[in-house]
Design a protein that fits this description.
The structure is a single chain. The protein has 541 residues and is mainly α. The protein is 62% helix and 4% strand. The chain contains 18 helices and 5 strands. It has a 3-stranded antiparallel sheet, with no helix packed on it. Strands 4-5 form a two-stranded antiparallel sheet.
């Protein structure tokens, strides 16, 4: 799994069914040395050694924007069509499930047919998925619409992991002699920016949707179409093909790497801790209106846009304020779709940037580089605090009980930013540990199981969040003559609590990993003494 030194003028191509883009960032930065970096002379964008990196980066960059956008377009469009949080969560099931199986197969496909093939296939499937969403009809029953959109999302999930194969290997495609070069550091930095671009997609998707559903879909298809020619005409068809026997599914499910398997289980709960509240409940809550400002006692007029509270709809047939989505509940600040997209997009952007700079800003200054299992247990426990605080604040604070919108929004911003920072640190450490542990048995394909666990965690969190958010809140029976739906303030609190328990489980499971010989430091303090002196060969390359 370690990067290999090649001769000068040589392109080193490593195709793995398992490494994620942030693995490369973590590996490159966490193992940085103090040696003087090599000068890279003559390297320009026209240099054939750099061309694969540039082309794959352009394609992956554009695709990442559309991948973030499709989630917001589907979710917010479904919200306005009165789908509940659980129904929307079901729409995302095949998207996440596709990630489970495509993650396992993508590396083998790349090794057999090359990066160019998987990249073009992924981009074409993304266009196909967006094209299917044009067919979503208002006249359909909920069951028909859910089935159709779920299938369309499945193709998007497959497209994501096929395209991501190029992003996974992009920092290993071009490796000049010596690893600690300016180019390699630049590549690591760009990897973090790619993660942040998904946040740009969240915002763009919601902003364009505010103008028109068809415009949002068409714009994103255009972005993917821009990337296609680069992949078709700019890459060699043999780029990334394996020089040895390809990995098989049987090899992926080898369970003889104890540390990696335990880390995979921890990864499942780590990512569930985010998706229990982030992907579906948070945008639903941000869109929902005040429960107590709906019904016959709140008459309205279509001529007065401010006659209803934010997030509510003036129903001309009854002439009073109603909930846009009774299935989505009420109790939130009623923000418009653009602001909701900015909320979620901001989280992704902060997460991506912190993840990219974790070694320099966090683990390095705290003398936790390279990290071990004790480092992850420490940060895993800290990961519980933002969602635990959110549970208490949302359920019991005066701001939420008295519906003080400005204070509610302020609390949510603080909680989201805090979680984004801490979660990014955990993810960065995980990304390094998977590389470290996978080296032991030299079976690159085994890490596919690790990323399959990642997808299963997102699936568990998404489905669980839809159920909790929909049913944990109580029915609003105290609104005379009108049922606005569930009080989802309690539903959101339940989702944050589930995220807290999931974070705790991830940290506890990590304790079982056998990797504490190097001890644990926090700044100048040694909290756990090393049990033995590490040999140079044990240090990550």
């Amino acid at each position: 799994m370690a990067l290999e030194d090649g001769k000068q003028e040589t392109i080193v191509v490593v195709v793995e069914s398992s490494a994620d883009a942030n693995v490369n960032s973590a590996l490159g930065e966490l193992t940085a040395t103090t040696e003087e970096e090599e000068d890279i002379k003559g390297w320009g964008f026209s240099d054939p050694r750099l061309r694969p990196f540039v082309i794959i980066s352009i394609a992956y960059l554009l695709f990442t924007v559309t991948d973030g956008a499709i989630r917001m377009i589907v979710l917010l469009h479904a919200y306005n069509k009165n789908f509940s949080a659980l129904e929307v969560a079901v729409m995302f099931t095949l998207y996440e499930l596709a990630g489970v199986f495509t993650n396992l197969a993508a590396g083998m496909m790349g090794a057999r047919w090359g990066i160019r093939f998987t990249l073009i296939t992924g981009l074409c499937l993304q266009i196909f998925s967006y094209g299917l969403l044009f067919g979503w009809q208002d006249s359909w029953s909920k069951g028909t619409a859910m089935t159709y959109v779920t299938i369309a999302q499945m193709f998007a999930g497959i497209a994501k992991d096929l395209t991501k194969l190029g992003g996974k290997t992009v920092t290993k495609l071009v490796t000049p002699e010596g690893k600690d070069t300016r180019l390699f550091r630049l590549v690591s930095l760009l990897t973090g920016w790619k993660n942040s671009l998904k946040g740009v997609g969240y915002f763009l998707g919601s902003a364009l949707l505010e103008v028109s559903y068809e415009l949002a879909l068409g714009f994103m298809i255009g972005l993917v179409a821009i990337a296609l020619p680069f992949a078709i005409f700019g890459l060699d068809k043999d780029l990334g093909t394996a020089k040895k026997k390809n990995s098989s599914l049987k090899e992926i499910f080898v369970f003889d790497n104890y540390n990696l398997n335990v880390l995979s289980l921890a990864r499942l709960f780590l990512f569930a801790s985010r998706d229990f509240w982030f992907e579906v409940p948070l945008p639903f809550y941000l869109r929902s209106p005040d429960c107590q400002a709906l019904g016959p006692y709140f008459p309205c007029s279509l001529e007065d846009e401010d006659s209803c509270t934010r997030g509510a709809l003036c129903d001309s047939s009854v002439e009073y304020c109603t909930n846009i989505n009774t299935g989505g509940g009420c109790g939130g600040p009623g923000l418009n779709r653009v602001v909701v997209g900015a909320f979620l997009g901001g989280y992704i952007i902060v997460y991506g940037q912190v993840q990219s700079w974790t070694p320099q800003l966090v683990t390095g200054p705290l003398n936790q580089t390279p990290p071990n299992k004790l480092t992850e247990v420490f940060w895993g426990m800290i990961n519980c605090y933002p969602t635990l605080t959110a549970t208490i604040v949302v359920y019991a604070s005066e701001a939420f009980r008295q519906y003080k919108v400005n204070e509610m929004v302020a609390w949510l911003i603080v909680i989201i930013v805090a979680f984004a920072v801490i979660f990014a640190i955990n993810s960065s450490i995980h990304s390094f540990l998977v590389v470290k542990y996978a080296k032991a048995d030299k079976v690159a394909a085994s890490v596919g199981f690790y990323y399959m666990s990642n997808a299963l965690g997102r699936l568990m969190g998404t489905l669980g969040s839809g159920f909790l958010y929909t049913y944990a809140g109580g029915g609003m029976m105290d609104v005379p003559g009108y049922d606005p739906g569930y009080d989802n303030t309690r539903g959101l609190a339940a989702c944050f609590l589930a995220g807290t328990l999931s974070s705790l489980l991830a940290a506890v499971i990590t304790i079982w990993i056998k990797d504490e010989d190097s001890g644990f430091k926090c700044g100048k303090w040694t909290l756990v003494e090393p049990t033995e002196e590490l040999e140079d060969s044990d240090q990550p390359e």
